[in-house]
Queue: 3 jobs
Job 1
Amino acid sequence: MPTVLVVDDDAVLREVVSTYLRRAGLSVLEADDGVEAVALARSAAPDIVLLDLTLPGLDGFEVFRRMRTHRGDLPVMMLTARGDESDRVLGLELGADDYLAKPFSARELVLRVQAVLRRTEPTRPTPAAPAPGPLVDGDLVIDRRRHEARLGDRPLALTVREFDLLEHLVARPGTAFSRAQLMHDVWGWDHGDESTVTVHVRRLREKVEDDPSSPRRLCTVWGVGYRWDPRTVS
C-alpha cells in the first residue's frame, strides 16, 4: 500500500485530505511543521509527499530542498494558498512533480496523487509484457527499464516528470505536441495549468541542450507546442 506524507499546519485540512486518501486505499502519515516533515521523509520513506509551502519554522521550499537532498527521486506535490504564479513556477523550477492551489477539490487531489504514483511505480517485466528496450538518439540514451538517462558519459539528474516527458518526446521524434496534449499524455490530466509543461520543458533543455537558449533537440513549434528533433552522431 503506497504511503502519502501530508505536510500542513492546518489540522482541519490535514484531516480532510487524509480521510480522502485513506478512502482511496492509501496509507497516510501527517506532519504539521517542516522539521517533523523532513524527519518523517527520511525515517518512513513515503511514496509521495503533499507539501504546503506556508509552514511554521522551515518554509515549504526549504523542506523540499532538504527532502530532495536526502532522496532525489522523492515525488512531491506542493499545496499552497498562494495564488502567485511566481510561487508556482519556483516550485516547478525546483523540481516539484505537481502544484495544486488551495482551495482544491479533494477528488482532484486524490486523482493527481494516484497519477504520480502510477508514474513512479517500477515497471515489472513479465513474459507477456517484456520490459521496453532503451531509446537512443545520438549521444542520448534512455534506459526505460532502469528509469535512467545518460548524455554521452554523463548521467542526467531528472525528476520523475522530466524523465517521463523526455521519454515521451524521444520515443516520437518529429511529432509536434501541444502543451495540452503533453499534459494529458505525460501527466495524465485532462485539465490543469499548462505552464507546468512549459517549466518542465525549460528544465529539460538545461540538461539536454548544448545551448538551452537556442535549442536544437527539444524545439518549440510556434503556435503548436514542442517537438523532439532527433540527432545523429557522426
Job 2
Amino acid sequence: MTTFDGRRPHRKHSAVNQQPIRLSAALTRGVLDVDVHGSRVAAQALFGFAERRNPKRAFLFVSKVLGKHIPVKPSVMEDTYQALAAQIPADLPGPVLLIGMAETAVGLGAGVHRVYSADRADSMYLVSTRHPVSEHLFTRFEEEHSHASAHLVHEPVDPVLSARLRSARSLVMIDDEASTGRTFVNLHRALVAAGVDQLERVVTCVLTDWSSGALSADLGASVEQVSLLSGAYAFTENPEAALPQMPETGTVAIGEWPLDPANDWGRLGTCGVRDTLGSGVTVTPGERVLVLGTGEFVWKPFLLAERLERAGAEVYFSSTTRSPIALGHCIEHALSFSDNYGLGIVNFLYNVAPGQFDRVLICSETDAQAVPRTLIDALNAEVLVDGQ
C-alpha cells in the first residue's frame, strides 16, 4: 500500500467575510435568526432558507452549491469540493476514512474525497445509506431530527477496504451542514463500537457549520471542524402554529427494484469511481441540459454532468430527494412522485419546472421501468441507467 509522505501542503483559505452579519427568515412555525461569524463564500450565495414539512424541526438551510434542492453548475460544485478539501489537514495519520452522510451529502463527500485522495492513497470513501445492498451491516446510527432518521453503514466487500475501515486512524465526516453536531456524534460512537477503535484524529467537514464548536464537548480535543461558513442560529417557535403532516419517507428496506452491488459507488466503500454513466451521450455547445440524480445516486450522474459541461453545454445538476419541504423562500417549485426503488414512498424534485431546460437526463441505479412515468413526462426527460 502506498503511504502518505506529507508532501501535500495544508492550504488555509482566508475568509471572505470576517464581519458578523445577521440574516432572518419568518416561517409559518416561527422565526429563524442566523448570525454568520465568518464565511469563505458570500453567505447569500452559499445558502438560503426553507421550511420543513416535519414536526420535529421546522427549518432547513438550503445549499445553493450542493446540487440537491437547487440546480447548480458542475464547475461550481467542483469549486466547493476543492475549497473544502483544502481545509482538511494534510498531516492526518492514515489510513483516512471519509464518510458522506445520506442522502444529501453522499455526492459532496465523494467530491471532497476525490480531491483529497489525489495526494492520499491511504484514504477510502464510504457513505451512510438508507438502502440495504449487502447482508453484512457494519453499523447503524440515528439522525434524530430527520425525515428519515435511520442510517446504515455497510461492511466493505473488498477485504483491503474492510481492513482499511477497521484500521483507520483518522475519520473525516462530511455533511451539508451541522446544526447541533448530534448526528456526527452518533456516527462516531457507532463506528467506534463496531470496531473502528484506533482513531487518533476526527474532522467534521460541512458547507455551513452552526454547531458553535459543540462537537469538542462530545468528541474531545482531537476533533477539528472545517466549513465554508460558520455561525449560530436561534429559532423562536410560534406555539400556536399547527404542526405539519409529514409523509412517510423513512423506509429502510430492499425495494421492489433491488440494487446491484457490482455497480456500487460508495455504499460498500471505494477508493475511486470510474466515469461510465451515459458514455454515449453527446451535447451541442450552448445546449441547456439538466442532469438529474435520483435519491442517493448522485456521484456517477455528477461525473456525467461534469463531462457534458466540459463538452460545451450549459449544464446544471440536481437530484430527487426524500426530503418533504414546503413551498416558499428558496423552494419556488416542487414535483412529487413515487420513488424509483419500489419502496412505496413519495419523492420530490425542487426548483425544476417543466420546460426550464432544453434536455433533461434522469439518471438511475434501478431499471428504467422503475423511474416514475409522471416525472419523465413532466420533464420530457430521457432515462439513463447505470450499468446499461
Job 3
Amino acid sequence: MNTSPTSAAFEKASGAASPGKKCIYRAIVIGAGASGLFFASSTDLSSPDPSTGAAGGLILEHTAKPGSKLLISGGGRCNFTHAGSVKDFPAHYNNGTFVRSALYKHSNIKFTEFMEDLGIRSVTEKDGRIFPECRRSAPVLDALLKRSAANGFTIRTGTDVTAIRPPEGPGRPWGICVARNGNGYPGNDGCGAADEIFFCENLIIATGGITYPATGSDGSLIPVLQRDLGIRFTELVPSLMPLTIAGDPYRSLAGVSVENAAMTIEEKSGRKIHQASGPILFTEKGISGPAALNASAHLRPDAVISLSLIPGISRDQVMRSLQEELKGRPQDINTTSAAAARLFGLPKSLTRILAERSCGAGSSPSLKSMAGLLTADRLPLDQETLSFSGKSSPAGMCTRGGIALDQINTKTMELRNAPGLFAVGEVLDVDGETGGYNLQFAFSSAQAASECVNGKLHG
C-alpha cells in the first residue's frame, strides 16, 4: 500500500481548503451507513485524548441523510441477522472463511444482545430471519444515531472526501480533505467552513458498495482510496438481484409466488454451480424472491438456471403421481393442470402454463414433459441484464467485490500496512446471502474494528 508521507492530491485539495480551526478527532468514519453507525455506536469517544487533546468522533456522509440504505433493508423491516449456529454462517458468504473469526466473535447472538441494549427487541420468523419486534427500520436508525451521539460522534452530511493523507510519522494524524456538495448541511462540530481539512488518530472506511447509489452506496470514494492510499479492489458487480429470463414463459404470472422452490445455477454442460432454496416470486421481468436472489450471487457467463417447483421429488415420482391421479380421466390441459395443482399445492395459473408447455406440437400434455418442467425447468438467463455483461445497472441488493482481503487483518479490520486505517462492511470483498447476513457482517466487522480502536485508546 502507498502510505507515502505526502499526497499531491491532498496538497492540492488542502490548498483550496479554508484554514479555519484545526479539528483533530480521535476517529473519523467515512460513511453513515449501517457499518459506520455500528462502529460509532460501539466506540466511546466522549472523553478527549489526555495526551493529544483530540476529542470525539466525526462521521462524514456525502448524502443529505444518514442511514438511507439501512432504512430500506429487509423491505423496510430491517432483517438484521439470522438464527442458528454462527458456525454455519461463513458458508452463507462469498469469502466467508476469511472473516470467520469476526463472525464467530461478534455473532448473531451478540448482535441481538447489542440491539436489545439499544432498546430494540427482536423476533425470529419461522424461516430463521431475525427482525426488530416492531418490524421497522426507523427505530433502529434512531437508536444508532442516539448512541453514536452519546459516544461523542457528530455527523456532517453533504460532504465529499476529496483527498486523504496518511500520517507523516508515528503518532501523527490522518488528514482528510472534504468539500461541501450541496446535499446537506454542516454539523455542529465547531468547523463551519465549506472546504476543510480534518485530522484524526483512526480512520474508518465504511462507504458501502456500488448498489443503491441514491443512498450513498455508489463507490465514489474508491478512486480516492486507490489514488491516495494505493488500496486494491477486486471487481465490483451487483449481487442479490432478481433473475431476468430470456423469453420468459412465466411473464403472465407476475405477482404469483411459490413458497418452496429450488434454483440451481448450471453451466450449459449441466454441471451444477450452486443451488438455492426458498420462496420465489414471478415478476414481469423474471423471477425474484429469496431463492432467486441468493442464486444470482453465483451466476457465471452463459449459465442457465434449473427451476424445481417441487424440490426433493424426482421426475419419475412426479410422473407416476400424475398418472395415478389422472387414471380413467381425460388427459387434457385443464385436468392435467388441476391434478398437478392438487397434488403439489401449486397455483393453478402456474400449473396451467406448465401443462400448455408440455403439449409440444400436440393438443394433449405429455406427463413426462410435465414432470420434467415441475422438477427441472431449464431456463436461459437474459445475458444483457447480468452484472458481468457490463450493460447492467447497479440494481442488486448488495455488492460483490471490494477491498481485497489480503490487505486486511480480518480479526481487527485494520489494513495491514496502514496502522490506524480500518475498513468495515460492504466496502470489503465480502457479500452474504439474503436473510440478514449482510447486516450481520456490517455489525461483526464494525465490532472488530471498534474493539481494536477501543483497545488503543483505553488500553
